[in-house]
Each structure stands twice: as C-alpha cells, then as structure tokens.
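3.2 Worked example (two chains)
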Amino acid sequence: MNYRVKNIGIAVALAALAAILTSVYVVNYKRHVQHGEGKVTVLVAARDIPVGTSGADVIDKKMLKQQTVPRKVRVPGAISSPDQLSQYVAIQDIFQGEQVSSRRFAAPQEQGIRAKIKGTQRAYQLPGNGDQLLAGTLQVGDHVDVVGTWEVKTGTGGDGSLVSRVVLRDLLVLTAPQGTSSSTVASGSGGMSVQLRVTDAQSQKLLWIQKNGVDGGFHLELRPPSSSLDTSNTYQDSRLMLSDGPGRRP
C-alpha cells in the first residue's frame, strides 16, 4: 500500500513539474513574440538611391525618411541616423521604401575609381608615350586639357592641311601614367596609359583624336591646381601660323 502511495506521489510531483516548465516556456515564448512585435524606428529610402551616391548627397538631398516597423523585420545593419553614412558611398542600388543598411555602403577607398564617377561620367583609359601623357609630372587628382592635331581635307584632289586645337578641357586624372614595370600593365605603342574622367559624349572625341590624329594625335597639358582660366575656343593651321604673331605672354 505504501509502495502504491509512493508511486502516486512521484507521478503527481512529475506532473506538477511538467506543468511548471510548460508555464515557464509559454511565458517566455509570449515575451519573445511580444518583443519581436514591438515597434522600432528605422530609416528608409525616400527615393531611389543609385549605386555610387555619396552619403553626403544622401543627407543633403534628404533621401532618407523615418518609418516605424515591427522589430522582427528590421534588417541587419539598419542605421538610426543619417550621419552614419556621411563618410561612405552606396555600393548597391537602394530603391524607394527599402530600409537603409550600413552593409550597402562602403568607404570610398574601397570603391576606388568607381567612387569618382557617376551619372554620365566614365573612366577612359588613354594609351600613349611619356611625352604625350606628362609621365613623371602627372598625378592622381590633377586636371588636364587634351590638345590634338589632325588633317582637314581642303580640296577635291584630296589635298589637306593640318589643324590643331584644344579638343577637351578640365578632365580629372583618375590614375597617373603607368609604365612597363612588372607591377603595371603596359598599354598602347608608347607602353604607358592614364585614366581620365570624361562624359560619355567626351569619350567619342577622345577616341576620334586617338584614331585620326597625326603624329600621335594628341598631348595632355596640365592645368593649374586652382584658379585656372581658358582662352576662347580657337584653332591653329598653317595659314594662321604665318599670319599670327607670337601671342601675348601667359
């Protein structure tokens, strides 16, 4: 009889323990669910943010807005302040209404040249020799003009004359001239190349003067680092070379 009572007591105790554990689990689960359903404030794109957009532009152009969402749908890396992006650049397209995450931005140096072009801008690799590309002088961040020489047909007999003019102005140097050392890639007959920032329209002119220029076709000329000025658009040919004086001192 005592043995039977003992077994019943153990069963009752185990049942009570199971009930307690179940109750604790249910309470914790409810707390977890309630925590996940809690509202948090996140920043979302007020409009599309294209890849390459700087964090400073995101802030200045008010491309973010606050939105309240359930805690459980907040994305990893979600930012709480626009200032967190001020030193970074978008590395992925972010569409209107999407949460903005720090994982979709990176430091400009991690992007390299890609961080320096946007919109209609392009990176153009221009081959040439050291004289054409100002090797030993040109540095990243400099601005240059491109002056070219080509032949203009002047008669039905196929005769032509040479003309020279500045064809492009104020191009940003993305990479300085690279030579034929083992650490660089040789390009073109001159064994050197430089990367310039141009627009898609300017790239057509640059390619044209490469392919149609006379005796190398072009030369880069370094602009002053500040307060640079341009003369009016002119050209030079054999007739003007004879009639023009030496010109004014710069």
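3.2.1 Second chain
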Amino acid sequence: MNDKVQEPPRSLVCAIGSEETVLSDEDIKAKLIPFLESLGPREDILILPPDFTRFHSQSGKITQFISEHYNFTPRAKDDAPPSKISKTSEGEDVSIKGGSDTEETKPPKMQILPALGTHAPMTEEQIKTMFGEELAAKKPNPFLVHEWRKDVITIGRAPSEMVKDATNGMVDQPWPAQLNKLVWSKRNHDPKTQPHKSLILSIGQVVPHEVMGMANFNKNLFVGVGGVEAINMSHFIGAVYGMENMMGRASNPLRSILNYASKTYLEKELDLWYVLTVMGTNKITGGLEMRGLYIGNDIECYNRACDLSLKVNFTLLEKAPKKVVVYLDEGEYHSTWLGNKAIYRTRMAIATGGELIILAPGVRKFGEDDQVDELIRQYGYVGTPAVMKAMEDSPILKENLSAVAHLIHGSSEGRFSVTYCPGHLTREEVEGVGFKYQDLNEVQKIYDTKVLKDGWNVKKDEENGTEEEFYYVSNPALGLWATQDRFKETEEKTERNAAVSISSQQVACDGSGGVGGWEKPPV
C-alpha cells in the first residue's frame, strides 16, 4: 500500500489516500474494523449504501465487511479472524470466535436501505452482484426499498433566503429537509446523557456530480433517501445555478443548503457516520482501484475526499475533441435518466460543433419511473428555452422540477450533437425526444469497445486513406472531462455569480450547458 496518512481531527476517524494509493481489502478492514469497535455495541444498525448505478464505488464490499464484523453474516472461510483464547474457572482454554473484540456475539438488528433517490428499485440479481450472496439470501430480508414519493418525513427547512441567493431570486421559498421515516426514527433526543442505541452508516463514492458539484456526503441522505419536494427543488436549484458552474466544485450554493440542514438537524440527534471512497483507474490494466478511504461524521470527511477526487477523477484536456464516444455498461444504465451522464460529464470537453456518440446496449426507457418517463417522452431534450416555456404552461412540469432540471441538463443547447445508440429503443423513440439515432450494432463495428482505450484514439479508413481522431470514455460515472479553457471560463462565471433570472425567450451563450451559464437578461 502506497499512501499518505493525515493526522485527523476527532470527527475524522480515517483520512487515507493519494493519487498513487491502492487500497486492498485488508487495508480497508484495517481502518474500518477498529472504527466500528470504537463505537461500542448497538441494538440496531442502518446502512445507507448507493444502488447498483454506483456499483464501482466498492460500497457493496464495505457493506459486506460491516455485516461480517457484527456477525450478521458469516465470514468467508479464508477470512476468519484468529480465535480469542480465554480461561474457564477450571483453567481450561476456550476458543471464542467472532468478528468483534467484544464478548457480545449476538448480532444487532441490521437493515440496508439503498439510497435510490429517484431511481428504480434494485433487482435481486443486482443485490446479489453488489452485496454478495450471503446478504442477498439473508432471512428475513435486510434490504428495504426507499419510495421517494411516499416514505418520507420533513424534518425542517433551510431558510428561503438561502434558496433565493442560490437561484439569484428565481426561487424564493424554504427548502424542505426530507428523509426516509426509518432514518429519522433512529434519532436520540438526548445523546449527551444517554448512549446511542442506533447507528447509521452512510457509504458511497465521492466523484464529480452534475447536480451537486461533488457526489455523496449529505446528498446520500437528503436526495438518496429524500422526498419528492426536496429532490425536485434540489435538482432545479442546481439547474438554475448552472451545471457547468456546478460540476467538480465541492462548495456551491446547493451544497450550502444541504450543509445547513445537516448541521441543524442531522448532527444533533443521529449517530450518523460517513464511509467515503475515492476510486481511480489503473492506467495500464484499466481496472478500478480504491485511491482513498475517508471515515467521519462531519463535512471534514467529505472535503478531504473531494480534494483527492478532483486529482483522481477530473481530466483536463489541452484540446477539445470534435468527437467523443461514450460506452454505457449494459447492467448499470437502463434509462437516459441514468445514461445522460455521458452528456453531463463530457460536455465541457466537447468542441463546439462536435459530436457525442453514446453506445447504450442496456438503455430501454427514458425515465426511472413511469411518470417521469412519460414527461421526457412528451417534452424531450429540446433545450432550455423550450423546456422553460413548457414549464410555464404545464402544471405537471411545475410539480416535477427534477424532470425539468433533467431535461435542461440533457440538452447540449445546440452546441454539439448527441447521437444515442440504444439496445432497446427505436429510432422513432430516440428522435422523438430530440436526439439523433444510430443502430448500435452498426456503430459498434466502427467503434469496437473491446479494443478501444480510454482517452485519445485514432480510427483509420484504409479505403480512403484518412484518419479520424476521437476521445473514448468507458464509464462516464467515474469522472469529469473538460478543456482547460472551458473550465477556467466557468470558474470566472462562478466568481461573478452567473446565475440570472431567466425567461423562455433567452438565448444561451456558447458553452452554457444550462440556465446558470446564461448571460443575456430576459427579453
């Protein structure tokens, strides 16, 4: 293991990682298990991992380690801890086996609530693949389904002034802090005088994110297991501020709102700890490796992870590719709601007038639930002016601001073209929402993902004696790509608070990528 260990404050239990670090399972356990031991015995444990769309975060593996530590599921035979030896009253040696140094061997009640947000529930096969057969087969089933439209409670509100500042006056109402009811039921009203009986562990990967700037931390709570009202407003605030102004920035107005809610409500009553990972790609093998592990109960844990993620997951290009080809894993991406990460994560890299080709063998629908799917089919990815005009005229869109934000984020605003090559959608369906269509099998003959390497590639046309240079991304969820000039431009916009009040008649500036990048005042 090659790593750099920083001396953490008390709230930061583990901060280990660097651009070269490779953390093995043993390295992870060496930090995770002593941390769990230090918390003492608990009656129940609630784990909040991501869903299958974040399979590569290694959150599933970490969940398995936690389960084994508490004897909720058995360890692998080759991973059993050495027996502890104690003496009976007669002086005989007795072997006591278990995953804990405590004498308590009865496992606590353990529940696992994947942070679905707006996503579809995990399938049995996805649970088995991500969390292992032991947890998948456990009876009674520890896995719960978060239903964002009905399973929530509003625990408080961020002041309307914060929301107004974040949207430059476009939205002037309090932001509701909403959580799954089960999470809020774990609170301790007087932690100073009585020990916590419940433990909440929020697990996930920190990586650049289109709505929140950087993924995870309290997003896993307020969005991952949040409710309709909060998620809708969060996505819309992010769209107003501007996706290109947001991505890759740990500090932004939307995150400030969530941080306020964390500090005001969560940290006072919940024994909530974050286990955050930073994942990187091996440049030789192309395989994923854990570069960093951070464990803590406040924002310091998140900030440290963000610092490393920006070094590991953010690729600055010297020139803008005219063509970008992105592959969406068939098991991970089954909707454009998920698959449009191909657009979000590469849009700051693509040249004006360029083309984005998305190879999407698993994509079979647009939205993650029926209502959002219907809205996407009806209104399409037609650019911010048209979407805003539709919202002005549609009560249903006004009630589904996350869908509005998604439609804004999914448009190139005419700066480059987007060609979708789905495995299960027709030409009519794809062109009906505003994208170009090409047959997946035909395009894969030209761009063979089995031989392409991440980064710059050259395709030779022997017949015509020509060459085509293009940029390839094998998994857009793992990073963010931008040219130096475009990222610098968005930094300057952020500094001067580029978010402006807009109307459906506005014209987007070059490279806007959403409402927040718009510079012209309403007509």
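3.3 Remarks
Residues 110 and 473 are 38 Å apart (CA to CA).
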